[in-house]
Write a structure and sequence with these properties.
Number of domains: 1
Radius of gyration: 15 Å
Strand content: under 5%
Shape: elongated
Largest sheet: none
Structural class: mainly alpha
Number of strands: 0
Distance between the termini: 22 Å
Helix content: over 70%
Order of helices and strands: HHH
Oligomer: single chain
Length: 71
Amino acid sequence: MFGSLLVQFALVWWETQKTGSATILATASLVAFLPMVFLGPFAGAIVDRNNRKTIMILTDSLVALTPSPWC
């Protein structure tokens, strides 16, 4: 999770440097971090009730299969 947060922060910062816009910084930050705020409590309850290893495999696979908009 720490690595994912670092990548997320790096992408937000890269977008800001490329555009030089504070609006892009604010928008990218909200889009990157708000889902964690809203989904975190529910995801925690789901993970606690299920097999953590299986959930980690599923979520990592989903991240790996998601196309990157920067490529």
